[in-house]
Design brief:
Number of helices: 3
Largest sheet: none
Radius of gyration: 22 Å
Protein name: Lipoprotein
Order of helices and strands: HHH
Number of strands: 0
Helix content: over 70%
Distance between the termini: 77 Å
Mean pLDDT: 79
Structural class: mainly alpha
């Protein structure tokens, strides 16, 4: 009978450990979701400013639009790391567009 208790205690410990890992992953996913959404919003506003300043025809502006569209898609399929990467790259192109490059 002691062998059954010995098996049950580690099983509970493993379950609690797995639960902790899953919940930690959920918290990280929420953070990525919020960060992606915020950064996308900021980048689209920067892109609108570049457009109103007359840089909508530049190559950098076009590249930024493509990257932000791809980032929005990555957000929709919950690939937040890829979303943030694309937003970061797009913001570089937006800055270049504002400089007329």
């Amino acid at each position: 009978m002691t062998s059954i208790k010995a098996v049950i205690v580690p099983a509970k410990t493993v379950f609690i450990g797995l639960l902790f890992v899953v919940l930690s992953g959920c918290a990280a996913k929420q953070l990525g979701r919020d960060t992606c959404a915020t950064q996308l919003e900021i980048a689209w506003k920067e892109l609108d400013i570049a457009k109103t300043e007359g840089f909508a025809g530049s190559v950098s502006y076009t590249k930024a639009v493509g990257l932000l569209s791809a980032a929005k898609f990555q957000q929709s399929i919950e690939r937040y790391d890829s979303c943030l990467d694309k937003v970061s790259r797009a913001r570089v192109y937006i800055a270049e567009a504002k400089q007329g490059q």
